[in-house]
Amino acid sequence: MDQERARVAADLGGVIEGDVLCDPLNLQMYASDASIHEIRPLGVIRPASVDDVVQVVKYARENQITLHPRGSGSNVIGGAIGPGLVIDFSCRMHRVLAINDSDNSVTVHPGVVLANLNRDLQ
Asked: I need a surface site. Which of 38, 48, 75, 91 has the fewest CB within 10 A?
């Protein structure tokens, strides 16, 4: 692990509850999505809560690191990959939080898969 990745792992590892992955195997796994593109990220964050996301966003802003949100990785234009920190919402932030029939709205975590949401709405 290079110095920059080690610094990110140390800095964020003590601040968030979720996972901070900077090892070569995980970086390679998150270097691609369903597109033809491949970009190895600086690190991968698997947040456990909204607070984790807030901390990662603050850290990235302070250190001028780009953020790349990722759901299931099914994006076909390379939108879920990039050279900064990939935030994988599919591990822990993938729940339907509220279904409100009175105003036909749904509140979800960012990692919700549309097919799962549609199943829940049936």
From this structure: 38
Contact criterion met (CB below 8 Å) for 16 and 64: no
Neighbouring-strand partners of residue 38: 32
Whole-Å CA distances, 26 to 19, 43, 97? 11, 8, 29
- pTM for the model stands at 0.89
Instruction: State the Cα–Cα distance between residues 4 and 73, nearest whole angstrom.
Output: 25
pLDDT of 103 reads 92
Q: Which helix (H) or strand (E) holds 25?
A: helix 24-29
- Rama region for 107: left / alpha / beta (φ>0; ψ in -120 to 50; rest): beta
Residue type, 1: M
pLDDT tens-place string over residues 74-99: 777 788 899 999 999 999 999 989 89
Q: What is the DSSP letter of 65?
A: -
53-66 residue pLDDT tens:
999 999 999 999 99
